[in-house]
Amino acid sequence: MKLIHPQSLQVACVAVAALGVNTPSWSAAPNVVGTWKLVSSVTEELATGKKTPLLGEHPKGYLIYTPQGRMMVLLVHQTRSPPKIDEDRINLHKYMAAYSGRYTVEGDKVVHHVDISWNEAWTGTHQVRFVKVDGDRLTITTAPAKHPITGVESTAVLVWEREH
Fold first, then answer.
1. Hey, where are the domains in the chain?
2. How high does pLDDT run on average in the chain?
């Protein structure tokens, strides 16, 4: 039997601890790490229950969660054209969402700690998302809030597919 030198063991423990410092704790939580392509996005108004695909029936978008605890998302309407007048630029901005920040996983919740955003009102906020991973599908439901496009109190359900 070969004995491990105590100093080697100490170095190994420090290395393992250092690797875990910036990584989210997964335990029983869903593994969201990876690149996800948007399949659908529907908002539901809390007052009426009305469901609307505000970014179209086939929106475009990507969501990336890194193992180091950083996330990035970009969502856009299914139809986009280069702007010709300022009103076009406003609509391009209005029918999109983009932000990035750190994230933490807490059971079935992922909290996005936004440090940069297309909508400066989101910068510095904590966006709560309820997640369910089923194979290569990720379903995210937002916490109730005023929708950035409509201003109406609602939730959104976004379905993503894992990219391989």
1. 25-162
2. 85
